[in-house]
Amino acid sequence: MAAMAEYHALAQMASALEALLFGMQEKVRHLEPSLERTSSMAMEFIEELLRCPGNARAGSAQNKTALVVDDDRLSNRLVVSALRVAQLQARGAESAATALQLLQEKVYDLVLLDIEMPEMDGIELCKRLRVLPGYEKTPVIYVTLHSDFETRARTVLSGGNDLIAKPILPAELAVKVVMHLLKAQSEGAKIAN
């Protein structure tokens, strides 16, 4: 109904959350803290969209570009595939050096980083990304095996926006990605006005 009323951002966010909640039905007794936190953040963001109808009418996050940086080829492909299902244009890089080169050639709308990588970890890559032109406010989501408090603190201090624990649930990833892209879009619109 939101889409019919041309509330594109609200429609996309509600659709992503619906898919996550549907997937969570089977796991009600064993919900991961990450799923609880993601669904709670999504509900708060939907409430924010409803309070600001202009943001809810904003364009969707579809066809935005994302760069996935993970040295684990299988994990990289899984995340790229999940993003493509969420109608994003996703590209993978298996090293920080390759990622830096790609980031300098094109400005991506979103970056997903693994933390543990050889040569340069995701924390250092995020710090370097933040000084590149066009990446000051780009959403950065860490995709990692580590979700403890210390890791969360390090990711925030490096300039990251969020964290999702491996193994990922594609629906949870879609909710986080859509939410961060829409937030960045609405913040960009506020700055332009």
What attributes characterize this protein structure?
Rossmann fold, alpha/beta, 2 domains, globular, single chain, 193 residues, 5-stranded parallel sheet
Task: Give your account of this protein's structure.
The chain is an alpha/beta fold and about 190 residues long. It has two domains: about 10-55, no CATH class; about 65-190, Rossmann fold (3-Layer(aba) Sandwich), CATH 3.40.50. It contains eight helices and five strands, in the order αααβαβαβαβαβα. A five-stranded parallel β-sheet has the order 2-1-3-4-5, sandwiched between helices. The protein is globular, with a radius of gyration of 16 Å. About 40% of the residues are buried. The model has no long low-confidence stretch (mean pLDDT about 85).
